[in-house]
Amino acid sequence: MKRMLVLVVGLLTLGVQRPAAQGQPIRGFPQAEVEAQRAREAQLRAVPDSGRLRRYMEVMAGEPHVAGRPGSRKVAEFARETFASFGLDAQIETFEALMPWPADRTVEMVSPSRHTMAIAEPVLAADPDSADADMTPVFNAYSGDGDVTGEVVYVNYGMPADFDRLEQMGISVRGKVVLARYGAGWRGIKPKVAYERGAVACLIYSDPRDDGFFQGDVYPDGPFRPDQGVQRGSVMDMPVHPGDPLSPGWASEPGARKLPREQAATILKIPVLPISYGDALPLLRELKGPVVPPEWRGGLPVTYHAGPGPATARVALRFDWQTRPLHNVIVRIPGRELPDEWVIYGNHHDAWVNGADDPISGAVSLMETGRALGELLKTGWRPRRTIILALWDGEEWGLLGSTEWAEKHAAELKANAAVYINSDSTGKGWLNVGGSHALQQMMSEVAREVNDPRTGRPVADESRRRQVQGTPEAQRAGRERDQNLWLEPLGSGSDFTPFLQHLTVSALNVGFGGESSGGIYHSAYDTVRWYTMFSDGEFQYGRTLAQLTGTLLLRLADAPILPFQFTDSADTFLRYADELEELAKTRPEARLDLAPVRAAIAQLREASQAFEQAYGRSQRLSTQALAARAELRRVNRLLIQSEQRLGMGDGLPRREWFKHQIYAPGFYTGYGVKTMPQIREGLEERRLEEAQGGVRTVSAAISALAQQVREAATQLDAASR
Length: 721
Hints:
This protein is an alpha/beta fold.
């Protein structure tokens, strides 16, 4: 009674409104269980506390803690001890990976005037953390070694279309040092394409038009990047594979097999370094050649010329190529009935420097989710399925910790993992969510249960409103009629990749943002001061994220029938096929016939409808009656492995590590998604045989999913008799 009184008073104190979804069915639960489930979820959502989030952040982001250095181990130990204080079983699981550390860095303009670049971010008196000891040097991880000199060519964002435009202008980058600005695509694509076009080095800077004073006041007076601010980051060729470059496809542990470094496919061949826009300005000022197109011009006080030269730069980089440790924090809450069915939620804990925003804002929210689960355990509750919480190390270098863990436990995960939920940095704004479309209905339901801290309305409302606004006018009426959120397809850039795209486990990626404008990403100024002044300073949205992910975990862990729904998948895949038809019209020589893909989608739709009918009949039974039938266990097993039917063992062309046939990062986008990637990229890159092969693999994968769903419907019907 005392615990219930505390809960009621807490709910009243927090001003929690009655969720809009109250009284509605919950996917996966018989109606008789809905009331008790909602009460348990409300109990969990009352636990997360904004003050605790801030205290965790002050510790975890108080010092630099890049992976491979002592600070990362220190943060992992703090997290493990904190989870243990919640009554949770938390362990550190250690791996290792090649993590080169800068030994020598020199970048200078040698003609027509001389300028030696700082390659360092100055201390700001207003932010003591900018003076922390063991500050991570400014560098791009997995750059090549080298000492080269060449004329400079400005290449805009350094994407393939930019290099094509230079060729049309009669400008070659062969033998040149290219200067690219951050933006328009992932940083690792810029030096990758530069090398393919013959460049000898790549410098990447943040132009103030995109990320600096053009956007607003710069730090410490405002949230944007100051003139000597620099964006660190990995340039590993992650579209080939993430994880340790020396162990593609298997776990990197002490004593494990390693490739020779010269055989590693994801280490770049030329030197690459990030610089500030303060250091880019002297180079741009000395460039001549054609004036660049208007859309290439940035915000610096110069006329932007393409070159080449006469500005000439020397880039000399040398790295200490060592294998260094990774420390993943793993929490397990065993399931009471189905311990071999797993629901996993992860966020990374490593940062390039202090990382208050990226990733600690998300990591501390995961920790409060853990505390909320710990409080439920004290009441006697146990989840039906096993819940695993993870704080990954080495994400910033190339998804190292999550990839090595997933590769080590691949067989168990493919057998047991129902869903992987991911979060990363989070801020103030609206809900952003992507993932496997079989989870779309469940995600929409949960987003209607959790309230926005400012409006008191479900977080689904603002998220859906923005989705409708972003829909092309011709399709908007249909979109408005659909009351569900639409999940965005996932590319890469965070720790869902090894689960979704390598092991083909169903996945979600969730977070809040959109109103946390700023330019301190991967810099020394991503500190607690910046976050509390310019992002979610009251930690309201961090608390809301903990409520959201906690609710997702309870739904997935306790639902008698896993809350998958496949008609949304069929609808989404059909939209992708329509997009590809339009793309194929621009490549008439392809003569692409998507009829097999459309036929497979029709099979999936029919199987999905059969499953929905069986699901409807199952709702007449109690959980006890369902659980007594052996067929129910088979239904959930089929659902757990349904996403795996969308994978192919041979993987995608040129990158077999990526198995998923519907979602993948683009070979030349890095983070940006390519849906039905073999077909889409085959068309875009005029690899027409590859595109035709994609029709076969995609249709086969969707047909396999249809068969899996059809079998699940049959088993669910049998369980409902």
